[in-house]
Design brief:
By secondary structure, this protein is mainly α. About 80% of the residues lie in helices and about 0% in strands. The model has no long low-confidence stretch (mean pLDDT about 95).
Length: about 120
């Protein structure tokens, strides 16, 4: 049986090489073994996001943001996942929090404002 570290490293390597679907497999196994490890869940969320599996990505980023509510990246990715699912109202809060935590990030502000605009249209 592979160690959590080996699974995580293999998943990161696959993710770095753009093989998002393949990265999901070892990262999911690592998460099963260490469900409270934020780094594993965030990396799995990235793989799921890039594989366009936004529901799964949102769940992983929500888990990270719940455990570490000042993780601006997890909040941003949670908001982006929600946006891509068409859940603009739900995207507003995590994107606003991410933007507040890192006001220098223009991309955070851009997607925050887009979510607010799109939420008003619904």
């Amino acid at each position: 049986m592979e160690s959590v570290y080996d699974l995580y490293q293999r998943g990161c390597e696959l993710l770095d090489n753009g093989d998002y679907q393949a990265a999901i497999v070892p990262l999911s196994k690592a998460r099963e073994l260490e469900p409270d490890k934020a780094s594993i869940r965030e990396t799995l969320g990235r793989a799921l996001f890039h594989a366009q599996r936004y529901e799964g990505a949102a769940a992983e980023f929500q888990a990270v943001a719940t455990k570490t509510p000042t993780n601006d990246y997890a909040l941003f990715c949670l908001g982006r996942s929600m946006q891509l699912l068409g859940r603009h109202r739900e995207a507003c809060n995590p994107l606003a929090l991410a933007s507040s935590l890192r006001p220098e990030r223009e991309d955070y502000r851009l997607y925050r404002d887009r979510a607010r605009r799109d939420a008003e249209r619904v």
